[in-house]
């Protein structure tokens, strides 16, 4: 029986090539979208689950409300918290801490003093217990005791190969840092860093007890400040995490009441976060150790896939019910010779199933071909292996089956309800399904299409806006050179004057943070005579003389730094506002900071205009700049079109002066644009899906109109014989569809407005949603629909009426 | 007795008016009869056949088929009944265009859940009997009208019905083809199949063992 169903289904599909083509095309696009998004989403799930008892491992995170001031909300904690948790609570069986050293230095690493080094980020200072909680696969050496002593390091296989080639490296040493801060580290192991799904993405580990930052963290005992340590605990099996969570407020008060008060952090709260949740559920928690995704983004993609597939299903439903007339005879006859409703439903379902399964088979190779494009769009690394995975294939099969059933069930019920007698009396026109229902589905398709058009326009506008917004500094024509070694510090003046001799170089400056980096350092400051516990958090960046004119930042009052400055600071306008300092009093104001009971004074010597030193998603917050001669970056402003020559001149000058730090550079404007890469990707993804949704909807419309034109052939013929013009006939056929698109527009407008309004809330600096966007989207959809419909309508209208009348 | 109609009527409402398509029909049909329904166009022949075939319902009166009261049956049971005992032949053949000759004939067996091997055998027999073995893989559009009607009859007979209902089976055929079909009916009747056919033609009606004349939904003479 099933074979018979499929045989007939196949013949039917082949017989109605246009309809089959439209349906198949839509379903293939839908299924390819589903498949790609499915493997992408699956690829984004399951992070950190491979660690032993991952469900018992938690990261401690910190939220600190500061009264009416913006709270901070970070994935990190103060250094002593994790060890104290372990000693206080029996259910905590293990703890480890990680410090991402990238925040403090540039991580220059060399195999020996004689060879060139590399800037290698993602260096983790880690407690010796790190491998007890996080199992890494060691290719060389052993995790046991690997970080027990100071100055030990465990390298990733990639880094080991980069530094030493294919040689065995355990027991060898590397030099980490430069000048007086250089440390010799002994390699105790090499781990495999290929494709492990973890929020941790270490390049190398260094033992926490190593002198410097690690030693500081190991011995620091303040529970309030220095919240930059990633703290992990592992609970014993069956421990009640909720219960532990409830004990944390008293825990932090017990250890750090006084310290919290001194730091103005009385509201500091600790939270346990399952490590398996970190990758997808970290929204709102700053300072992640690596890049994290967002479950909302995945839901958004899944919704897109769902809608595309739905639009394709609607085509199938509409076209199948629309041509019920053509199938009515077959149905009637089958019933007369004994077919029950059930068997007819099964027959029609097998048709839609066959179609969706064919679409599935075709979609697999197409998806594989598209993967490189997808990877470019999502910065992913998906391969065909992600598809040929039983989980994906089972899900794909289920999706296709569901699609087939969803698309087929309504037409099946409609078609199988046709009474044989209606058909056998021939001349009767079958009222197949509800015309209203079909219209509603067309409206639905266009609601989706119009909403997507609106979204694409707005997302693109916002993206363009972030690209073109005046950031308060000039990012064009500037390279940033990686510095950060003691060598660069001591030879900065020489480099600068040498650079200025290069043709095309306009000015040179240096700084701790580049304009495309988020300034994380901050000081809690207060005004003289005010409560030292009522702190205002002021971000801090150290820069050189000439920083402001190199960046084209407006110095509104006062002066640039000079060589004798020490604690003198230049602040932005937001700082004045935050402290309520009148503009004319700014240069006579001193800001204070208390550290270990010592009060430090910071006299303001200049005020700069507010410029965007973080992304446009954030508001401009108070910032002060101080003179700093240990830069991480050297900025070179140039005026030349010959970038190649410029860079090669810079490089040879650099190499003449510096032998510890490699020459690496980036273009500042490129890096700033990269800050909005996610929005750019989103706008590209949306554009692709919008195009697909419109394409499928229009194909459906095309099919429907062809069908109506066919059905009304006789009516059109008679009208023309009676003298109707081509125009009136075209109008007859298109009028209904135009009305549907207009209804869709009315429904889509508020939906799209709400969704986009919501999305724009993510940005502090954002565009206003203009009415024109909706008008444009509406007219666009209408035009596309009109072109689609009139193509068929005109064809029907100009046909010679005699032909259609004679065939009757 | 194969079937009994007792004061059977079919009355429908059209535009607020009641129209009587069939009016108090009394009819007994014994197994082995070959009845010809005659009457002008619009006299109710098709309606009567459809009602007997349970594709339409009498709105009044009694209809008993093989001692089962059809008038009080649920739709589902009626379907079961006619699937089992009744075969239809139509003026317009009503073959399924997408199926080959062989598949068209096989279709009723599919709905009776007969095993594939048995189906093949039954279809082969009937193809042989009707001399259309050579045409078995052709589609209806590739056959002449007479050949299509042969297939239609073969399809009606494949499930061995007790009653064959034929609505103007030769209406679309030329006279030579018509005669062939009528001779086939006579032969089937001799083999024991009860036949009721509707026809305009006196000569076709003459093949029957009993002629019933209809006018305006009433039996006017026998
Ligand atoms: N559903 C219906 N509604 C209204 N009139 C009908 C309907 N079905 C049949 N008729 C009418 O009933 C009469 C009998 O039709 P029919 O049984 O087809 O006659 P015949 O087959 O003898 O030509 C005709 O006048 C026809 O128009
Ligand atoms: Mg008739």
Automatic annotation (TrEMBL), chain B:
CDD domains, A to Z: ABC_MJ0796_LolCDE_FtsE
Domain ABC transporter: 3-222
Gene Ontology cellular component annotations, sorted alphabetically: membrane protein complex
MF terms (GO), sorted A to Z: ATP binding; ATP hydrolysis activity; transmembrane transporter activity
Domain of life: Bacteria
Pfam family, one: ABC_tran
Keyword annotations from UniProtKB, A to Z: ATP-binding, Nucleotide-binding, Translocase, Transport
InterPro entries assigned: AAA+_ATPase (IPR003593), ABC_transporter-like_ATP-bd (IPR003439), ABC_transporter-like_CS (IPR017871), MacB-like_ATP-bd (IPR017911), P-loop_NTPase (IPR027417)
Family named by the database record: Belongs to the ABC transporter superfamily. Macrolide exporter (TC 3.A.1.122) family.
PANTHER family from the UniProt entry: CELL DIVISION ATP-BINDING PROTEIN FTSE, LIPOPROTEIN-RELEASING SYSTEM ATP-BINDING PROTEIN LOLD
The name this protein goes by in its record: ABC transporter ATP-binding protein
Organism this protein belongs to: Bizionia arctica
Lineage: Bacteria, Pseudomonadati, Bacteroidota, Flavobacteriia, Flavobacteriales
